[in-house]
Each structure stands twice: as C-alpha cells, then as structure tokens.
Write a structure and sequence with these properties.
about 90 residues, alpha+beta, two-stranded antiparallel sheet, 3 helices, elongated
C-alpha cells in the first residue's frame, strides 16, 4: 500500500529481477516487504531448493495499492486485468 499513489498499479517484473527478489525475501535479508517461503513439509528452503528454482520461472508482478484502492468497485478486475488473466 502506497498512500501517495492512486488506484491500483500492476507492473510485471523482469525475469532477471524475480530470482533476486525471492532470495531477498527468503534468506533473512532485511527489506520493506518480508515474505518467507517454506516447503510443504514445513522446512525452510535454501537457495538451491527446487521450489526456489520453480518460483523463479513464474511471472511475477508488483502490485501497488493506492490509499483509496479498496473503495474502487472494480478493484478485483483491475488486478486480474493487470496480470493478464482476463
């Protein structure tokens, strides 16, 4: 959420950016956004884990929600359209 932004902005991340962002959020580095991936059996994934490799191959998007984004009656549609799933 960015209180200085308007609406919903969806941007596809470059293929080169995705592995670095997964690593940034996976292995304890400090960042604004904190996401931890875990394997289905509950163990922490390492950088060479097949799950990390698989996730790195998927398209990824940055979604920025403006201060009033949730009041937009087309909120869900804007996200779906932004990631090209329509």
């Amino acid at each position: 959420v960015d209180t200085t932004a308007d609406g919903v902005t969806v941007t596809r991340l470059s293929d080169e950016t995705v592995p670095a962002m997964i690593a940034e959020n996976l292995f304890g580095r400090r960042s604004r956004a904190r996401v931890v991936f875990e394997a289905l059996d509950g163990r922490r994934c390492g950088p060479d884990d097949p799950l990390v490799s698989a996730l790195s191959q998927l398209p990824a998007y940055r979604v920025v929600l403006g201060a009033q984004a949730y009041q937009d009656r087309h909120f869900s549609r804007r996200i779906v359209d932004g990631v090209g799933m329509a």
